[in-house]
Design a protein that fits this description.
Chain A is an all-alpha fold. Chain A contains twelve helices and two strands, in the order ααααβαβααααααα. Chain A is about 70% helix and about 0% strand.
Chain lengths: ~300, ~350
């Protein structure tokens, strides 16, 4: 009884954690280059709606994922233009981008509300999925869930083990110094935001194609903002983000499980835990002056002219 | 004294110039949104005519715009007040929810208070709720433990979940079947409205807040000290101004304003506590304050514009079969052009 409860919670945590992890990686890449994006919610919605409509039109969910990723990447370029080229305030631009994404996705998806798709199928891993109890729980996901941890590792590898990642982080720490060292901060920031947009688009497409298998207005329901919190929680590190996303996903899954079993503990209080934890982590790390945040986070690079 | 009058003249000229410039930018946003509507096969001219006539063309429509302005002006103040010393409050949404929560507690539990005391008591509770919630972030910031930007953002979720906890749990109206909502407020806890419209007493609170804000900033020692902190925190500190106290105090007052917005929404609009209390009013308030650069008159103008746009969304939904959320595009476009235009000149954070 307890065992099956734990297994269903963990399996649910992986399911709800996957789109969160894509979104967190997106936010982390952007913040590593010094840009806070509160508009991730809008980017995800664009990914969700474009992914869904493409799947309905073509009947091919893989094309849907690709289209959603591309839509996210391109939509994030609007944000890039504002905060990089026009040097606009990042928080205000991000919130404006969120509202734009909410509206545009509602307009695009209006005639698709209620359509259902087969969506992304679960892929059962041979042999492993036949293990009793845990087989069906842990080796029976859609392709995007299997891919999310390799992608997190890939993002980590790019950021921390390649020259390009080093330049990117250098811009995030101190764009002026990076510029003096011969880097082009603006180009690197655009590249990072495009990749962030792609990841955000995938996060949205995963929601509409695999989790909900339908389109609804504002279906991301604040996950874009949760990702911002998760980045802080994971100290701007892609690998720690895996643990963070599992924890947040676990809270969501615990809530669903307890509701299903009629446990009389309020799920809302449990849901607060990740946020309160993030805040505590932030305050403790902030208090010890070992801030992990990129040095130029939120500041505008004024250029050198 | 000369300097002061010269400053006022400059302010006036700047204001005229900024109104003209803003109208041009707004025109661009309208044009782009028209193109978007065309792409989706809608008639933009009819949409604009309908929005205009339904919001500004009738006294009922106009009063509904005013109703939408009340919480927006208050949440914008919640951002503008702390922004005087460069504090960034992204937590208006959560502060609004906690204000509503406190006000609901008062409305449900103190209905035996005399009528003249009941409404002020509920308002004070709303203010206190939002204020205390925001001052947690202020405290963390003053201690140097956590940036107020991040902590206010995180606490929005906690606040919304807390309200959900109460309306799904202990405060759930047993007669509401499956709807998560508190019991209806007693009549004495409903903020009075004016002229047979839905414009409620919250409007007066918002106006008083805006005037006080302007007065304190320009006419008092506190305004001067705040400006000193805003210009150079270290220099202000060495001149004996307690930045620690100002950080907590301004977060408290700002949060209180958002709390009043929440109180107004539950008491005058909904008449009970519901989780669907706010469609992002706190975030919209942030954008309004940003557009107005924290200026009280600018807040009124920007809140008016955004209210016309959001009220227009309801019209589009009803008459043009365009999703109501689509007007968020227009709102975002207005912000985009303002952001893109201003940033080139004013740098910094």
């Amino acid at each position: 009884m307890i065992g099956s409860f734990l297994i269903s919670i963990l399996s649910g945590a992986i399911h709800s954690g996957a789109p969160l992890l894509y979104a967190t990686l997106a936010e982390a890449v952007g913040e590593r280059v010094g840009i806070v994006n509160l508009g991730l919610e809008g980017v995800m919605l664009m990914g969700a709606v474009v992914g869904f409509t493409t799947t309905v039109q073509t009947g091919n969910p893989v094309l849907g994922i690709l289209a959603g990723a591309l839509a996210g990447g391109l939509f994030n370029m609007v944000f890039g233009f504002l905060v990089i080229t026009r040097r606009a305030n990042q928080l205000a631009s991000g919130l404006a981008l969120m509202f734009c994404g909410v509206g545009l996705s509602a307009l695009i998806g209006a005639s698709y509300i209620g359509s259902r798709i087969q969506g992304l199928n679960e892929i059962q891993i041979p042999f492993l999925s036949t293990i009793p109890f845990i087989g069906r729980a842990f080796f029976n996901y859609d392709i995007l869930v299997y891919l999310v941890i390799p992608i997190a590792v890939l993002v980590w590898w790019f950021l921390f083990r390649t020259r390009w990642g080093l330049s990117l982080r250098a811009v995030g720490e101190n764009p002026t110094a990076a510029f003096a060292a011969g880097k082009n901060p603006h180009r690197l920031q655009y590249q990072a935001l495009f990749i962030a947009g792609i990841l955000g688009g995938i996060a949205g497409a995963h929601l509409s194609l695999a989790v909900a298998k339908t389109w609804a207005e504002w279906m991301t329901a604040g996950r874009g903002f949760i990702a911002v919190a998760l980045v802080i929680f994971s100290k701007w590190h892609p690998l720690r983000a895996i643990a963070g996303a599992l924890l947040f996903g676990g809270a969501i899954s615990l809530q669903l499980q307890m509701q299903a079993r009629g446990v009389p503990v309020s799920s809302f209080l449990l849901d607060m835990l990740p946020y309160v934890l993030s805040l505590a982590v932030l305050a403790i790390w902030g208090g010890t002056r070992r801030q992990a945040a990129p040095g130029s986070l939120g500041r505008v690079f004024q250029g050198t002219e | 004294m000369d300097k002061v009058t010269a400053g006022i003249d400059l302010f006036r000229n700047k204001r005229v110039a900024s109104v003209i410039r803003f109208s041009g930018l707004f025109g661009i946003a309208l044009l782009v949104f028209a193109v978007v509507l065309l792409v989706f096969g809608k008639n933009p001219i009819r949409a604009y005519v309908d929005i205009f006539s339904a919001t500004l063309g009738s006294s009922y429509g106009f009063s509904e715009v005013l109703v939408k302005m009340i919480p927006l002006a208050l949440t914008a103040l919640a951002v503008a007040i702390p922004s005087r010393i460069w504090l960034i409050n992204v937590g208006g949404e959560g502060q609004l929810f906690i204000g509503a929560l406190f006000a609901t507690w008062g409305a449900i539990n103190f209905s035996n208070l005399p009528a003249w005391l009941f409404l002020p008591w509920i308002s004070i509770l709303g203010f206190l709720g939002g204020g205390l919630w925001a001052s947690i972030s202020g405290f963390l910031r003053a201690k140097g433990w956590a940036s107020e930007t991040i902590s206010t953002l995180l606490m929005n979720y906690v606040a919304i979940l807390l309200v959900n906890f109460f309306v799904f749990g202990p405060w759930k109206d047993p007669e509401s079947a499956n709807y998560p909502q508190s019991i209806p407020f007693p009549d004495a806890a409903i903020l009075p409205s004016f002229f047979g419209s839905r414009v409620h007493l919250g409007a007066v609170l918002a106006i008083v807040g805006l005037i006080l804000f302007h007065f304190v900033l320009s006419r008092t020692r506190w305004g001067l000290e705040m400006r000193a902190i805003g210009i150079n925190q270290e220099a202000a500190r060495r001149n004996g101004i307690s930045t620690y106290r100002y950080i907590i105090l301004l977060m408290f007052i700002g949060g209180g304003m958002a709390g009043l917005a929440g109180m107004g929404e539950v008491s005058a609009i909904h008449g009970q506590l519901r989780p669907s209390l706010s469609p992002g009013l706190g975030y919209t308030g942030f954008l309004i304050s940003w557009m107005a650069m924290g200026n009280p008159l600018g807040i009124v103008a920007a809140a008016f514009l955004i209210s016309v746009i959001t009220a227009g969304g309801d019209i589009l939904q009803m008459t043009h079969r365009i999703p109501g959320a689509a007007v968020h595009i227009l709102m975002a476009l207005v912000l985009f052009v303002v952001l893109a235009r201003r940033a080139g000149k004013v740098g910094g954070k």
